[in-house]
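Open question from group meeting: does this chain pack into something compact, or does most of it stay loose? Before anyone orders reagents, we agreed to write out a predicted structure and look at it together. Recording both the input and the output here so the notebook holds the full record.
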Amino acid sequence: MKPRHLISIDDLKKNEIEVLLENAASYKEISTREVKKVPALRGKTVALCFIEPSTRTRASFEIAAKRLSADTLSFQSKGTSLEKGESIKDMAKTLQAMKIDALVLRHSSCGVHYQLTDYDFSVINAGDGMHEHPTQALLDLFTIKDKIGRLENLKVAIVGDILHSRVARSLIKVLKLFEAEITLVAPPTLLPPFLTGLDLKITNFLEEVVSEVDIVYLLRIQKERAALSYFPSEREYIRFYSFQLSHLKKLKKGSFLMHPGPINRGWELSSEVADSDVSLIEEQVENGVAVRMAVLSYFLAGEGGN
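Structure tokens returned:
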């Protein structure tokens, strides 16, 4: 059977996403046991290749694979043949010869995963440039459902560096499947052209929407992608887009704050807000393991994941 891949949210139907979230709920319970392991992927090998830096995604995928009893192979470009100039396709041929079952890949180039779909292993996108980050969107969806109790007809504000954010692209797609009303809050220079035709609201002021939404989703200012050059000053960004205690007081009851991490404290939000009761940042990290367990088991062990 030809392996399936998760490169974009578009690779999943709505009912498949619902199955993944149900499976993730079961896997989350496993993480509370004394022995945090099940044999779902015993005998499988998952290779983890992170060409870009990562802490949360890399660690949660590795923990997820090990809790499913899979063998793991973890490497970066530094210290491998990629550093010597080997192509990503030649690396894939090497991994195929080693009979791996899945490659979890983070890469700085958009769409690089599509070059690897003809090999005999599943390709899971752990983030590719400014393109997509599907498992982040799935864990965010799981976290929202866990806290609010529903996914349909939510009001969500996505705030900050939308232009450079692969998280935003995947999140918008998955929320639209559940008919969310999405408002983008960003400087005009950080709003990408792909927004045309997506039925999204847009504003340049966080103050306008903070009291109306169920979720405020803050994005990291991606300094490594030159995001700082897209607005006049740190002071101006913080004034209009940073979530502060004054915003917290206006947040309606039952609403929450999210951030994919890592946080630039003082930029996207204040420390008091990050550590407040409405912040779901720690829950997002915790749920990442369960959701990635569900993804790996679904794509490697078949329908239903168990």
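Observations to bring back to the group:
Residues 134-280 form a domain with the Rossmann fold fold (CATH 3.40.50.1370).
The two ends are 18 Å apart (CA to CA).
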